[in-house]
Amino acid sequence: VSASDRLPMLPVALRPLPDEGLSGLCLRNDEANGWPADTLARMVSHLSGGDIGFASPGQTILGTVFRLDALAEHLGCPLDEIEATTLMRPLRRLFGDDVDPRRLGSVGPLRVCPTCIAESRFIGRETILPLVRSCVEHQNLLAVECSRGHRLARSRPDAEPFRCATCGEPWSHIRPIQISGPYLLSQRRVVHAYRVVMERGGEDTVARARAVLGKNVALRWSGAWAAHRHIADYRLQPRYIYSLTSLVATLVVAEVPPERLFDEASPPRGPSFICRNRACPTFDRSDSMHSNGRRAETPESYCDACGSRFLGARTISSFDVGNGSSDLSPLSVYRARARLARFREAVAAACRLSIDAGDVLRIADVLERARVPRAAYLRASRLGIADTVHAWQRASPHPVRRWRSPAAEARVVSTKAGSGPGGDAVPR
Ligand SMILES: [Zn+2]
Ligand SMILES: [Zn+2]
Ligand SMILES: [Zn+2]
Predict the structure, then answer these.
(1) Do the Cβ atoms of 108 and 144 come closer than 8 Å?
(2) Per-residue pLDDT, 422
(3) Which residue has the higher pLDDT, 66 or 82?
(4) pLDDT value at residue 57
């Protein structure tokens, strides 16, 4: 496509916020341009012969009806960023490139958090996940109706963005219903399970879940907090797991941490897996131990608190000089520490580059950019790599770019130099 074939940028073009969904992105742009709700969504669905608006969350699972490439051109941002407002990538990784949107599970009507709308016009991508009924950040239920009981999902050609299409009430005025206790806990677990499976899942995840859950699932159906209808509806036998949502529901109801699907390539945790690093807060315990497969018949394991690795009972690497093992020379510990310091610097630099480029900071992207191996033990909490990324995520401005003339763009270049938490400082 030559430059002249490109679609024009909108007068005001807002890029996606981190974790924003496609409906919210379109509505924010409608509002910023003073257009009725759905103008932008219909504009890009017309290109492929559709007429789909924000009120159809099911269409935003993969977003294929919307010509996402056209939307990217209208907003002047990379296609990647637009695709990240849908569930296309995680679902394709789990179920293959020709995945059917029904693999998510059945999506309900449009749901929004009134507080998120009031604060930042934010409709998260996670609001379309079938079991997510609340905003875990604000701890309230997602609203499906205005205060007078009109469905938010109703759409009308001249409706204003973020207002009830029937009575005009702003969505931000809907009174939030707080949640707490066991229901909040189950919602947190649901959100966590979706996040872990979507971030780490691959083509063998469903098969693995059936195997892992097969052993546990009958035992724990009756957990008190799981009695809530939204969860209890999903009493599946592991062999019936076929959608992302049935997988998540079964993990949550069986109280199996979703990480188990990925960390236990071979045998389960057992007494043989204990952290043998004397300097580790979980020394001599198994709580932070994970299997790392086998080497020549001997199980390898690592500690996600201190990052030490073990082959059987032998320590094969550690970042603590006082690890107390005679298997490791101090020199090899110093080498590991030097390597870690280089990784942390590279990660901080990659975070700064990403922020300067206006990218959304995602840990997997940052590690790739920093050329840090994607080894699980490197994410151990005491090593500070994950913390570095989180600190930069908190300091990151929302990657919102208003349209401006090229001249104005030139004037703002380099105002960001030297920003960020503690510059290049490596956390100790
Ligand atoms: Zn919220
Ligand atoms: Zn209304
Ligand atoms: Zn440890």
Answers:
(1) yes
(2) 36
(3) 82
(4) 81
Q: Which residues of 165-198 are buried (b: 16+ CB within 10 A; e: fewer)?
A: bbeeeebbebebeebeeebbebbebbbbbbbbbb
pTM as predicted? 0.60
Which of 45-59, 127-141, 350-364 has the largest mean confidence?
Answer: 127-141
Taking the centre of ligand 1 as the mean of its atom positions, its distance from the CA of residue 24, in whole angstroms, is 13
Q: Are 115 and 138 a contacting pair, CB within 8 Å? A: yes
Give the ligand at the shortest distance from the Cα of 172.
1
**pLDDT at position 4 over 70:** no
Closest ligand to 152 CA?
2
d(CA 223, ligand 1 centre) in Å: 27
Query: What would the DSSP string read from start to end of 285-338?
Result: --TTEEEEEEETTEEEEEETTT--EEETTEEEE-S-GGG--TTS-HHHHHHHHH
> What is the greatest pairwise CA distance in the chain?
75
For the chain, what is the mean pLDDT? 81
Q: What is d(CA 86, CA 22) in angstroms, rounded to the nearest whole number? A: 6
d(CA 420, CA 392): 7
Q: What's the rounded Cα separation, in Å, for the pair 110 and 151?
A: 9
Task: Tell me the ligand closest to 320's alpha carbon.
Answer: 3
Give the DSSP letter of residue 117. H
- 10 touches 40 (CB < 8 A): yes
Burial of 219 (0-12, 13-18, 19+ CB in 10 A): exposed
What pLDDT score does 417 carry? 37
CB atoms within 5 A of ion ligand 2 belong to: 146, 148, 150, 164, 166-167, 169
Stated as kind and residue range, the H or E segment containing 134 is strand 134-135
Virtual torsion, Cα 388, 369, 319, 192, nearest 10 deg:
60
Ligand 1 geometric centre to CA of 180 (Å): 14
- Ligand whose nearest atom lies closest to the CA of 151: 2
pLDDT tens digits, one per residue of 263-281: 755 444 445 688 999 999 9
Q: Could you please report the per-residue DSSP string of 238-290? A: GGG--SHHHHHHHHHHTT--TTHHHH-SSSPP-TT--B--TTSTTBT--TTEE
| Bridge-based pairing state of the strands 309-311 and 314-317 | antiparallel
Residue 315 has pLDDT above 90, yes or no: yes
| pLDDT tens column, 161-187 | 999 999 999 999 999 999 988 888 889
Ligand of minimum distance to the alpha carbon of 307 = 3
List alpha helices for 165-241, DSSP H.
181-200, 205-216, 229-232
